[in-house]
Amino acid sequence: MLCELFLGSLLAFLLWKRLRPCTQRACVLVLGDFGRSPRMQYHCLSLARGGFSVDVVAYGGSEPHSSIRDNPKISLSLLRPLPALIARLPRLAIYFIKVVLQSLQLFYHLYIKLPRSSHLLLQNPPAIPCMAVAALVCKLRGTVFIVDMHNYGHTILSMALPPRHPLVRFAVWYEHFFGRMADSAVCVTDAMRHDLSTNWGIVAVTMHDRPPAMFRPLPLDERHGLFMRLSYKYPIFADPDNQSNQTAFTQLGSSGIPEYRSGRPALLVSSTSWTEDEDFGVLLKALTAYEERSKSQGNLPPLICVITGKGPQKEYYLEEIRQLEFTRIQVETPWLEAADYPLLLGSADLGVSLHTSSSGLDLPMKVVDMFGCGLPVLAHDFRCLGELVRHRYNGMAFSSSDELAAQLAEVFGEQGQSLLVDYRENLIEFRLQRWEQHWKATVEPLFQS
């Protein structure tokens, strides 16, 4: 009798959770640091503008953009970090415990804690375990399940393990099996859309990353203000002679209006998550070659290279940088506030991307942000880079440190200024295609079902 009563109560609870009315309410699931997931933040803002209430389930860490924090229609439900104690266990045990604990947390947040959503949008990767949990919860609650494929989780895993390793083979099966359970799919390139259709049997829509309005070229007075403010925390931006109202790049002219200093250094920027799919050794070798070339060619300016971001290999490369004895190049690795990052890109002379992609099918978001600021980019070449960077049209593609060093010398040489002007003009069309318009045309229809 008690058993029948329990089962009846459980069935009634499950039915109530499934049939409880929900209006326009979306859940956005990111099994990672939400503050470092700009594309998912943009999805949230677009959904909120479209009338949805948005519940974000993700890990904390970095602060999301203020437009997310201040939006009354967006709420964050943060996952708890895994206990530090498990780090002492063998790798296989860590992996198993991590999957179990994350699965329980995800089910609690998605099924018990949060109200029923009409739609659930999942960022992939990672796929394990969130793709299976999300598929289960959506079936139980009658929620439309949408996957946003940024890359493939199994290709990232194969960078740390042999391709035929049992865990990699399981990850391939898992991602294919549960990926096909989604009601709709979004992806980041046409090449990935074709691969999903051909090899996965998944029909996806391509939502190329596009920058929001905050990414724009900065006028000189705003650049001067940014450099002044950053100089208090990072002396690399300060005037080397400690003159007031001057920076390493700008000064106040006789009329009190900011102007570039004569003989100023060039500002080179890059952004990274310091992971294995970005070999910063390529940039360091190229900078070393540029340093040697600039000593013999008097027309090459000194460089200030600013590399933003956090990640597992940052300390390794910081030590590499400390070993370099540059005289004409300075390197800084700041962690900028979310609002300052687009301002820095909008103030730079040139961007560099070392992203190579584990699958060869995704594109670097950092280049999208740079292009939004009208900033030409030198990008490491890979399979589908041409969907974004058109060689010698809006930037250049390189395959080695020697090529990158030659491109730096060309861009900052005597004829380089006209090249940069041409590239910036060719980026105007890209800058007109902003996130919101593109999202409404491609992704919004998936949330109208």
Structure in words:
By secondary structure, the chain is of the alpha/beta class. It has 17 helices and 15 strands. It has helices spanning 2-19, 38-49, 66-69, 91-113, 130-141, 153-157, 166-179, 190-200, 220-231, 280-296, 314-323, 340-345, 365-372, 401-411, 416-426, 428-432, 435-442; strands at 25-33, 53-59, 74-79, 119-124, 144-149, 184-187, 204-206, 250-252, 258-260, 266-271, 303-308, 329-332, 350-353, 377-380, 395-398. The chain has a 7-stranded parallel β-sheet, sandwiched between helices. A 6-stranded parallel β-sheet has the order 12-11-10-13-14-15, sandwiched between helices. The longest helix has 23 residues, at 91-113. The relative contact order is 0.10. The model is unreliable at 14-19 (pLDDT under 50).
What secondary-structure arrangement, pairings included, does this model have?
Blueprint: H1 2-19, E1 25-33, H2 38-49, E2 53-59, H3 66-69, E3 74-79, H4 91-113, E4 119-124, H5 130-141, E5 144-149, H6 153-157, H7 166-179, E6 184-187, H8 190-200, E7 204-206, H9 220-231, E8 250-252, E9 258-260, E10 266-271, H10 280-296, E11 303-308, H11 314-323, E12 329-332, H12 340-345, E13 350-353, H13 365-372, E14 377-380, E15 395-398, H14 401-411, H15 416-426, H16 428-432, H17 435-442
Parallel strand pairs: 1-2, 1-4, 2-3, 4-5, 5-6, 6-7, 10-11, 10-13, 11-12, 13-14, 14-15
Antiparallel strand pairs: 8-9
